[in-house]
Predict the 3D structure of the following.
Amino acid sequence: MRSRIAKSLTIGALAAALAACSSVPLDEQGTDQGAAGQGAGSGASTGQIMDPFNPQSVLAQQRSVYFDFDSYTVSEQYRGLVETHARYLAGHGQQRVVIEGNTDERGGAEYNLALGQRRADAVRRMMTLMGVSDSQIEVISFGKEKPKATGNTEADYAENRRADIVYQR
Amino acid sequence: MTAQPHIRYAAAAAPARRLLAALALLLAAALLWRPAQAQLRVDISGTGATQYPIAIADFSGDDTGRSIADVIRADLTRTGQFRLVSAVGSALTVDTPVAYDDWRARGADTVAYGSISRSPDGRYDIRYRLADTVQHGQLDGVAFTGTERELRRIAHQIADRIYEKITGVRGVFSTHIAYVLKQGGTYELQVADADGQAPRVALRSREPIISPAWSPDGTKLAYVSFESGKPVVYVQTLSSSQRVPVANYKGNNSAPAWSPDGGRLALVLTRDGLSQIYVVNADGSGLRRVTRSPMIDTEPVFSPDGGSLYFTSDRSGSPQIYQTSLDGSEPRRVTFNGGYNISPRISPDGRTLLYVSRRDGAFRIASLDLSSGNETLLTNGRDDQSPSFAPNGMQVLYAAVQNGRSVLAGVSSDGRVRQTLSVLNGEVREPTWGPFPQ
């Protein structure tokens, strides 16, 4: 959890820099290699590869947005992550993604389906504001039905309050 | 509450049933309508305020007569409305004159008894009578014929007749329930008798199945399957296992609910953003949006008159139950207690609303008298979900978690009698009680 946040913060700081000066070369993202993330290949040089189907790429490794309990807005720390994907998608108009929302296991199946959808939709809205076409994005939800973490600790719940950006081949 | 004796029973899989199951596997479809191997059991605790004392004698003439009486006794006991008076050794046949005063002295106001015989073609003739020991007369008397496989159904029909003769309310023992059983990574949509026995698999999938909903005539189930990678609403005809996607739009498709005439479905789509309520014809045509809110609107159910929908919305900041007309106008908030009220279900007479309410971190089944505004918490579990009324409004089926496992549970609609129908192997979710047989 801590490493995930640390990593996201790094990207977030970078994205903020990028936003401030849009002509900054993308290869400056290569600094994001300190933390051991959840994705495979941490420590490899990911920043320069902008290919969602390359496991070494940040687009493949950093594609989950986590949400606080009872929260359905993208927190500031994930803004950079969303922006990285949004930039890629805006530049690749034929590429489609599905944003999959998830919730923790507490509560009803249908209401959680709606809540997961609201989380995924928050990511979609941020992406469209960043220039991605709505036609490239489908927002769906698994609600509480497909938990990544199957335990019932607070850490498990936090892992499941999540929206994943999934590139379609 | 007084503790009642625990009743546990499980139907043995008949060889013929196993053969059928094997054939079904050979045919390899996940969609076959066939007997399931999961077995349910029933635990009963608690009693109702008024209990009718009744003696139910083993039916005479054939070994199956005892099984028939066992099913009837279990059905009536499960309601909490009956107290069984022992009829052991009575050896009553359907033609035996009933010694009314003797039975009355033993405490039974009514006596059910009968005979069963097997004809040369293998069919059974079952004759039953219900005697009133107070009035010294016969309340009911009927003859049935059926195959061995139909004996359980006939026993439920007899229990229904006894229940109605004595309480004045139509019995629900011949009805069915549907639920989702999760075993490992496999999801099964199952249909079982109202007592949890004789489960059959309507759909098997490696992906989640939620929100099964019975058509009013009991011949179809609408449900949400994730098999295509996202929630899609299907309608499946039970007898043929034929099914069609009725809502497969961009985004989520979920929460189907039938109109009382069976002609339309209310459901929830996210094609226009967040979850909103739509109505379609039962074949998927004629899509029309009902609610237009910037928030979540979900879990629609039709009122019994078909003129309005109850639904869950968080438009007030927390999920609450609302009612709206079918054109989406005049939405009216219905629940006010607590900060989390979801999954509305309306009683057959339209007077009582069930829902799941979060109280002190626990999810309970609540019952709201719509005319008086009185709310009752029917259950006291930690995670009680998916309530539904029996078609006579007397019982409520729901999903509970006991000892860390998901189980089927029932409670009388006055909250006095609770029971557990637990699957021996797997998690059971999303139960829903079917309609009266047509």
Summary: The longest helix of chain B spans residues 151-167. Residues 301 and 310 of chain B are 5 Å apart (CA to CA).
